Amino acid sequence: MITFLVRRLALGLLVMWLVTVIVFIIFYIGPGPADVARALAGRDAPPATVALIARRLLLDRPWYVQYGHFLWGLVHGNLGYDYFHDQPVTSIVAQGIPITLSLIVGAAPLWLFLGVMSGVNSAQRPRSFRDRFFTTLALFFYSTPTFVLGVLLILFLYYQLTIHGIALFPGSGFTPLTQSPLEWFRGLVLPWLTLALVTAATYTRLTRSSMLDVLGEDYVRTARAKGLSERRVVYRHALRAALTPIMTQFGIDVGTLVGGTVITEQVFGLPGLGWTAVHAIQEQDLPVIIGIVIVASAAVVVCNIVVDALYALVDPRVRLH
Amino acid sequence: MSTAAGGLHRAEAAAAELVRRADAVPLLEIADLRVRFDTADGSVQAVRGVSFAVEAGHTLGIVGESGSGKSVATQAAFGFARGAKVSGRALFEGRDLLTMSEKELRAVRGARVGMIFQDPLTSLHPMYRVGWQIGEGIRAHDRSATRRETRSRAAELMARVGIPHPHERLDDYPHQFSGGMRQRVMIAMALALRPSLLIADEPTTALDPTVQAQILELLRELRDDLGTAIILITHDLGVIAEIADDVVVLYAGTIMEEARVKDLFRDHHHPYTEGLLGSLPSAGVPKGELVPIEGQPPSPIDPPPGCPFGPRCVYRTTTCALRAPPLVEIPGQLRHRSACVLPTDPVLRQSARAAHRPAVAHGAPQGR
């Protein structure tokens, strides 16, 4: 277990280092350092100012010097400063993280529950009305764009309710949990629903097919032969074995969403990581983009390690090394 | 003198058995069991009117090739052939399994009837400890059993089926056991609540030959000690010969022949049984003397009228394709019945068979 963690952490660090290299290369051969200095100097700045800025930001030095400087800062916990307000990137990212995490913390259990329960119910009676109902529902939400679903929820559950005097949910904005748990919750219900409904569809289909496989297994027949209740057969025996692919998908989704709840955050005006990333891209604020990419890749790496460690907990046949 | 006394002895024993059997109410009595599965390709007639009985403490072998309905018949009777349409009667300990509620059936399964299956690796849940899996069945039927009690009972059961160091092995997972030990775990699980009937569905097929013999020996020992009746489902007449008292030969969902095991091996009647015996490898039979049954079993979807074995039968007559012969008693033997038009009289049967023998050799040109 320890060797496994050390190995995987080392591999994870390698992956993240590669990510920084790739991001840096894209930046270097992309808009080019000269453009950056010009953009920062302003439209009418004289060339001397542009050159000064370029020198101060090391933009006139070879790429490996710049990369070394960047990496040196990174290992010291310094991701640089944003181009427009001189704020440290770490604090910009740190502001976004709790918001994105709040979104995922509520949405993930919700989509997992909805997806797994509907999938199990579908698999219990394949091709039944119930199965077709959940399949249709899953396909409906799967094919609904997030922004459409989000806007529809806002229209009905915020706008219509509020103009009829039932102001259950705010339309947008974020209240930190530490400030007011109730407001935090109220503000996040609609984004949670949006994210969960869109994501749950995958889990419905995945759980259904995984359960259909497992329900045909010999050990499920053994469980029935023991005279166990159908509920116990389905949940204790079949679902336990069907969980592995669901767990994998869950790890990927959570990891990816840390850096990628872009649309939900946009629709509900939540200034999380996705929202920050979009604004940084619009402004070509490269240090911020790089910072968010690094955080997002770290999330994916960590989630993968956690999922692999969980395999060993769920399935005794899996040996970690 | 001694032979005469021996013959008398045998006759007496047979008479005693006849009397005993007439009195005994069977533990399980299946009557006209029909099982079909409605699929997109049509209605699959898996079992087509099968009747048999198992007496307490006895062993019934059900033999047949894949798809003969031998597994489906018992699984359907105990209510877990999923998606099956089942009709007929299945009296177990005096109650009809087919009219029971799901809840009543669950109380029977695991408690009154235990089951073991072909592949003990896939039949045990890979993610739970074997002690827990054995205990789970106990707790499902005996709510008063504490965790501690079930644990020690599981250990006792494991010791009973010959697993060394049971207390240490309780917390092992199935993949940590060998094939034979896994099947012993399955047997411990099936016998946990002292059922009156054990259904063993190909219990030795997936095991090494030496381990097969050990498992059969264990089953025989447990049957004799606990008085558990056994239904042994297999494609292997050799296994039947080892352990069963009676045997039912199934083909395409119908009974071809049923008899006491010794009668079947000494004096079979049905050509299908003859085929099974001919394709049975055994020590002492030289290479090349195995006779496989030519052809394939009929499709279970919309089976044609007539004897299902007819198309593959070397003794077939024109009537065989028109009407399936009913099961008829073979005179002079106890409960020996066969569904074939061959004469029941042994002498006439021998000459009928002999008359067909040349036709076997030149069978192919004749058919064209």
How is the topology of this model organized?
The complex is a heterodimer of chains A (321) and B (368).
Chain A lengths: L1 H28 L3 H9 L5 H10 L6 H13 L13 H36 L4 H15 L2 H18 L17 H35 L2 H8 L4 H29 L3 H6 L5 H10 L3 H29 L7
Helix pairs in contact in A: 1-13, 2-3, 5-6, 5-8, 5-10, 5-12, 5-13, 6-8, 7-8, 8-10, 9-10, 10-13, 12-13
Chain B lengths: L1 H22 L4 E12 L2 E13 L4 E5 L6 H8 L6 E9 L2 E2 L5 H7 L4 E4 L3 H4 L6 H12 L5 H14 L5 H4 L9 H12 L6 E5 L7 H18 L2 E6 L2 H7 L2 E6 L2 E7 H6 L4 H8 L49 E2 L7 E2 L7 H16 L1 H5 L1
Parallel strand pairs in B: 3-8, 3-9, 6-7, 7-8
Antiparallel strand pairs in B: 1-2, 1-4, 4-5, 9-10, 10-12, 11-12
Helix pairs in contact in B: 5-6, 5-8, 6-8, 8-9
Q: Which sheet architecture does the biggest sheet of chain A show?
A: none
Beta-strand content of chain A: under 5%
CATH domain fold name of the largest domain in chain A: MetI-like fold
Order of helix and strand elements from N to C terminus of chain B: HEEEHEEHEHHHHHEHEHEEHHEEHH
CATH superfamily of the largest domain in chain A: MetI-like
Terminal CA distance of chain B: 57 Å
Helix content of chain B: 25-40%
Instruction: Give the radius of gyration of chain B.
Output: 22 Å
Q: What level of helicity do the residues of chain A show? A: over 70%
Number of discrete domains of chain A: 2
| Total count of strands of chain B | 12
Please compute the radius of gyration of chain A using only Cα atoms. Answer: 24 Å
The averaged pLDDT of chain B comes out at 84
Give start-end ranges of low-pLDDT stretches of chain A: none
Helix-strand topology string of chain A: HHHHHHHHHHHHH
Q: Give the total of beta strands of chain A.
A: 0
Strand content of chain B: 15-25%
Q: State the secondary-structure class of chain A.
A: mainly alpha
Report on this model:
The complex is a heterodimer of chains A (321) and B (368). Chain A is mainly α. Chain A folds into two domains: 2-89, no CATH class; 90-314, MetI-like fold. In chain A, 77% of the residues lie in helices and 0% in strands. Chain A is built from 13 helices and no strands. Chain A has helices at 2-29, 33-41, 47-56, 63-75, 89-124, 129-143, 146-163, 181-215, 218-225, 230-258, 262-267, 273-282, 286-314. In chain A, helix 7 crosses helix 8 (181-215). The longest helix of chain A has 36 residues, at 89-124. The N and C termini of chain A lie close together (7 Å). Chain B is of the alpha/beta class and 368 residues long. Helix content of chain B is 39%, strand content 20%. In chain B, the strands form two sheets. An eight-stranded mixed sheet of chain B has the order 6-7-8-3-9-10-12-11, with helices on both faces. Chain B has a four-stranded antiparallel sheet with strand order 2-1-4-5, covered by helices on one side. In chain B, helix 5 (130-141) packs across helix 6, helix 5 runs parallel beside helix 8 (179-190) and helix 6 (147-160) crosses helix 8. The radius of gyration of chain B is 22 Å and the shape is globular. The model of chain B is unreliable at 358-368 (pLDDT under 50).
